[in-house]
Amino acid sequence: MPSLIDLRRRIRAVKNTQQITKAMKMVAASKLRRAQERIVNARPYAVQMQRVLSSVATRVDPSIHPLLIVRERGPESKTLVVVVTADKGLCGSFNTNVIKAAGAFIAQTTEQCRLGLVGRKGRDFFGRRGFAVMFEQIGIFQKLRYQDAQTIAQLAIDAFTSGDADRVMLTYNEFKSVMSQRVVVDQLLPIARAEIDDTSMTATAAERGERLRPAPSEQSRGAASGGGAPRAGDEAAPAERDRGAGAPGVNNVDYLYEPSAQEIFNQLLPRYIEVQIYRALLESNAAFFAAQMTAMDTATKNSAEMIADLTLYMNKVRQAAITREIIEVVSGAEAL
Predict the structure, then answer these.
(1) Domain 4-21+293-335: what homologous superfamily?
(2) pTM score, two decimals?
(3) Distance of CA 328 to the CA centre of its chain
(4) Known catalytic residue: 91?
(5) How many CB atoms lie within 10 A of CB 197?
(6) pLDDT tens-digit readout, 29-56
(7) Do β-strands 78-84 and 112-118 pair in parallel, antiparallel, or remain unpaired?
(8) Burial class of residue 79 (count of CB atoms within 10 Å of its CB; 0-12, 13-18, 19+)
């Protein structure tokens, strides 16, 4: 049974730890607010840019730019997996989840994988286990800047265009809310081409055909008045229906490029890669502070429960010691 001095010392240590976790929770909450504002402001631009460029990429020849070329995949193919983790711990399963997702992707694919590691925790984990590392970026989350995303994007683009990687995957934690984060494994290069929805196109064409087709009552009146001869409007109706049935859907539109498509893609596609990586860094940064705040809040509550249990146990030990001393005094008095 521990002595009262040991129990008091342990309670004092837990209280000190509780103060640290409470302070870390408040700091994480303060940083989370700023990080959340940054990702909320950046996310619409990144999402819309991805939607537009994916749509444009479906309507041009992939050979117009090297970042659009889809290479054949096989056992000899090479994949660069960019893994975004944090530089620090004390954030629950934040780093573990993204490392597990990257490890599962590497285990499932038959291609040769090399890693681009962003964050100290990912570097430490994969570096100790002998994975092939192409590049690493450490300490960028202390003061996250767009230039950091540009550096990582340039490394990924150089690896893809030089043939060191046939595709580039990006793995990071997406910020959903304070209580939840979602691990994302997304293809960064080559740029994904949007798929045109043939079902919506067929439905749209059918609706147009229905609108162009005259009502049955109008057909009967036209046949009775004209002796069965079609009117000028009726002659045009089949042609209009044919054009409506074969008309492309809303998504199947083409663009006019000014200046040329080559010059536009030379400027936009590298910027697109930079924006997507910058978004991933912002998402991971906000998710880290949310996970850290949640973990520190849980640690603070657990320390309070531990202090209560230790205090109760200390009181029981003290009561037992007092009872034992009283029994000794009474036994000594009876002996006299």
Answers:
(1) ATP synthase, gamma subunit, helix hairpin domain (1.10.287.80)
(2) 0.75
(3) 68
(4) yes
(5) 14
(6) 999 999 999 999 998 998 888 888 888 8
(7) parallel
(8) buried
**pLDDT (tens digit per residue) in 126-182:** 988 889 899 999 989 988 999 999 999 999 999 999 888 999 999 999 998 888 889
Of the ranges 214-223, 240-249, 251-260, which is most confident?
A: 251-260
Q: Tokens 């975004």 — which residue?
A: 84
Which residue's structure tokens are 């536009």? 264
Which spans in 129-228 are helix H? 146-161, 198-212, 216-226
Q: Say if residues 70 and 190 touch (Cβ distance below 8 Å).
A: yes
CATH class of 25-195+255-290: alpha beta
Of the listed 11, 60, 68, 91, which one is catalytic? 91
d(CA 326, CA 162): 86
Task: Show me where the domains of the chain are located.
Answer: 4-21+293-335, 25-195+255-290, 201-246
Q: CA-CA distance, 97 to 160, in Å (whole number)?
A: 27
